[in-house]
Putative alanine racemase (Fusobacterium equinum), 360 residues
Amino acid sequence: MVEHSFYLEVNREAILHNINVLRKWKRKDIIPVIKANAYGHGMLEMAKTCVQAGVTQVAVARYQEAKKILEDSYFQSLSKECSFQILIFESIGDFSLLDDFPRMDISINSLEELEKALEYHISPKKMQVKIDFSFGRNGIQEKDLPFFIKKVKEENLTFKGIFSHLFSCSYEDGLLCIKKFSSLVQEMGKERFDRIHLQNSAASYNYDCDIVTDIRVGMLTYGLQEPGYFHEELQRAFCLKGKIDSIRCVENMKYLAYEGKEDVGMKSAKWAAKIKIGYADGFGKENENGSCIIQRKEYRIAEVTMDNTFLEVDERVKVGDEVLLFYNPTKTKQETGKEIHEHLTGLTNRLPRKWIGEIK
């Protein structure tokens, strides 16, 4: 790796540990959500880790994400006996895109989409039906459910799955969503669906749902705690780190990088350190006046440029010292106004991901 570069280190063992914790906690199987480059952690390695953990279903947002995974040599070489599948949340429109990828499952987000998929001879065992209980997202709307139920019963359709979206809404609204979803599945017959899932990470804290077979978790899989909640057994899998690239005495300088010293709060500062990460890597200017850790001590982030970031430091800091960013997700939210998953999903591909731990 280039000297003093920054990278996102990901602990594979922490991911495997979290998957086991979630299974035991909810007494359900899990569907890890690995969209948005696995919440910034690295989608391909995350998908491989899920296979290692015995996960049989993961979920992504878009067709291109699933395609990128399945075109990788690791997945090309999986035996047919391996039942690993990828659910795509967003409608793909062109069903011919599925012809070369038998490991893709699609979401059915409307009655029209169901009709078109059946006309294209997509097996219902490749479909997971999404229901929208007034959250304004994807899915068959409540007003269309009588027509959906009638069609399913008349044609005796059985599907790969059925799901809805239950997140951190009000507790009462969540209970109502569970009641509606459970009633729908019971009316149609639970045996029509191989997989039934409702809760995301936030809802997993608030609710249990007897009728589901799986929980669909994104943040918790990576050990990212939901705001206002905490599971003591989950392990954070990422660490964003690098090293001090250079240090300058700025005591007699008027400017630092592209700004006046006074404008970046460095008017009386003596030392500035440069690190090789900037907003082109997804480390945005909202991090200015935030903090980092060097030698177990907090230092202020003074200025973020396209390629570099400048820190206000003291005489103890040396070139080559390790720097930790986003070391405390709660503090990161307080300093930047953004949740940690918003930061991580914004990290660009220019920033390397380094997974620790081999695929077994």
Observations:
- Residues 11-222 form a domain with the TIM Barrel fold (CATH 3.20.20.10).
- The longest helix spans residues 171-188.
